[in-house]
Design goal:
Blueprint (H helix, E strand, L loop, with lengths): L3 E7 L2 E10 L3 H14 L4 E12 L1 H16 L3 E5 L3 H9 L7 E3 L2 H7 L4 H5 L1
Length: about 120
């Protein structure tokens, strides 16, 4: 099943709504490309996984690599609204320990600390 990625933003936070499967091949590659591109534009990213039906080992690798790429750039990726299947896979592999996970996109957005530039105004 193909992956569909819808991107929006609020303030300087990119929100990616993921639909489909995060699996080996074009799906994982497409998510990786999108996340890396967004990390060139923002330091704050939310992945909404509410509509993810399956994540395989390659998909897990993509999520972990995205986390590492963000961390190396001083950026943050948070997960929101995990589907039951996504939650099970992330929990059973302990990948859930890497990410801050929120019940909704709104909660994930609120959890970001204000940027220093905003505090200085």
């Amino acid at each position: 099943m193909a992956i569909k990625l819808d991107v929006s933003s609020t303030e300087d936070i990119a929100i990616v709504r993921c639909h489909g499967w995060i699996v080996f091949g074009e799906e994982a590659d497409e998510l990786k490309r999108l996340v890396l591109g967004l990390l060139n534009e923002t330091e704050r990213l939310v992945l909404n996984l509410a509509w993810i039906g399956h994540i395989d080992s390659s998909g897990l690798g993509t999520l972990v690599a995205s986390f590492i790429s963000a961390r190396n750039r001083g950026a943050e990726i948070k997960l929101a609204a995990l589907s039951l299947k996504a939650r099970r896979v992330l929990k059973s592999t302990h990948v859930d320990r890497l990410f801050e996970i929120y019940d909704s996109t709104e909660e994930a957005i609120k959890s970001f600390h204000p940027h220093p530039e905003a505090a200085a105004r």
